[in-house]
Amino acid sequence: MEFESRVPGIEEAAGAFLLEGDPFICRPYGSGHINTTFRVSCRLGDGSHRHYILQQMNKNVFTKPDQLMENVVGVTTFLRKKIIEQGGDPDRETLNIIKTKAGKNYFVDSLDGYWRVYQFIEDAFSYDLVEKPDDFYQSALAFGNFQHLLADYPAATLHETIEGFHDTAARFEAFKKAAAADVMGRAAGVQEEIRFVMENEIYTHVLGDLLAKKELPLRVTHNDTKLNNVMIDKATGKGLCVIDLDTVMPGLSVNDFGDSIRFGASTALEDEQDLSKVSCSMELFEVYTKGFMEGCHGSLTEKETEMLPMGALVMTLECGMRFLADYLSGDTYFKIHREKHNLDRARTQFKLVSDMKEKWETMKEIVAKCR
Ligand code: ADP
Ligand code: GN1
Ligand code: MG
């Protein structure tokens, strides 16, 4: 098999799974920031091709990959059953794990790298930028419905794959530490950005406070609802399958909503360097709000609905803090593809936060209208 790009352990891993046909090429795939993803193509007897996603899990981020896989197995098995009950196609509407030749759900290579294989979802797209509003609407339906499907999932069986993942107040503390430690000597060059975070501290504990007071319910949520984590069916244009299940954990619905807005309602890519192109589109905000509410099947409480704009602002601020903290710490968490990549990403998030504040009343009106 030809490898377009190699990471240690990949050959061993590619040979470890029960793939149909003859694997002939393995190439890097997608634009995720965390795992290392490849597409493996296999030739079948009749000359046609079959594809798989081969993924090395990020052990720096997911320190307990075996627990991570227990979650993914649990959630995909649960979803598969529900999709079958509802007359859907379980081979395309949820991720499907391909087992190893030894009958395991993942493979550990001789360097202790963790690998998994998913069936490749054919004839579907995932986007880094909204091309047409209906795609964003369909993604909202899919993410809302994902939460709806998991409403009766046994939450206590889920491992916390990343501790305090959306504990925004703790993220703020971690940010301050990174800025104070300044291990790369980069803080002096980003004083304006650091000041921006400090001035917005108040938003870092709003949602946590409401959760603590039980004014917002804890649900089983996806926690990483960006547009490229949902597959859109090429033929029907519908949201087909929610992917990237590594952070499915108890969480807040408004965070799932908000993370989608910060990524998908932006008028530019997450790493756009020309900030004049970056704003939060109210047209896309409305489209997503409508779809998410529909997808949740009316299960959002009054308070959750009221806090949707806050979810958008908080998730955007949190993500910006995480990017900036990673830039200050030497880019150890998110994959980067150029110098200052994390700084560029942080800047788009802060631009979006400022824009959302300006559009606050409009966002509230849109939510009220969609209720
Ligand atoms: P990361 O955690 O790094 O974001 P993902 O699991 O989201 O990794 O995968 C990265 C990208 O690979 C996705 O955005 C999507 O484009 C593609 N992808 C992942 N799983 C599948 C699949 N089963 N079928 C088709 N494409 C997939
Ligand atoms: C990461 O894995 P990916 O690329 O879908 C990150 C999210 C961030 C996002 C920013 C496990 O998502 O939390 O919001 O980058 N995932 C993890 O683009 O940290
Ligand atoms: Mg992803």
What does this entry look like structurally?
By secondary structure, this protein is α+β, with helices and mostly antiparallel strands. It has 2 domains: 2-120, Phosphorylase Kinase, domain 1; 133-370, Aminoglycoside 3'-phosphotransferase, Chain: A, domain 2 (Alpha-Beta Complex). 43% of the residues lie in helices and 14% in strands. The protein contains 13 helices and 12 strands. The chain has helices spanning 10-14, 65-85, 90-93, 133-149, 168-181, 191-199, 206-212, 253-264, 282-295, 302-306, 308-329, 341-358, 360-370; strands at residues 2-3, 22-28, 36-43, 49-56, 97-98, 107-108, 114-119, 124-125, 219-221, 230-233, 239-242, 249-251. The strands form 3 sheets. Strands 1, 2, 3, 4, 5, 6 and 7 form a 7-stranded mixed β-sheet that branches. Strand 3 and strand 4 (49-56) form a beta hairpin. Helix 9 runs parallel beside helix 13 (360-370) and helix 11 runs antiparallel to helix 12 (341-358). It starts with a strand and ends with a helix. 43% of the residues are buried. The model has no long low-confidence stretch (mean pLDDT 98). The protein binds adenosine-5'-diphosphate, 2-acetamido-2-deoxy-1-O-phosphono-alpha-D-glucopyranose and magnesium ion (MG). It comes from Murimonas intestini. This is Phosphotransferase family enzyme. Residues 26-269 form the Aminoglycoside phosphotransferase domain. Pfam families: APH. InterPro entries: Aminoglycoside_PTrfase, Kinase-like_dom_sf, Pseudomonas-type_ThrB.
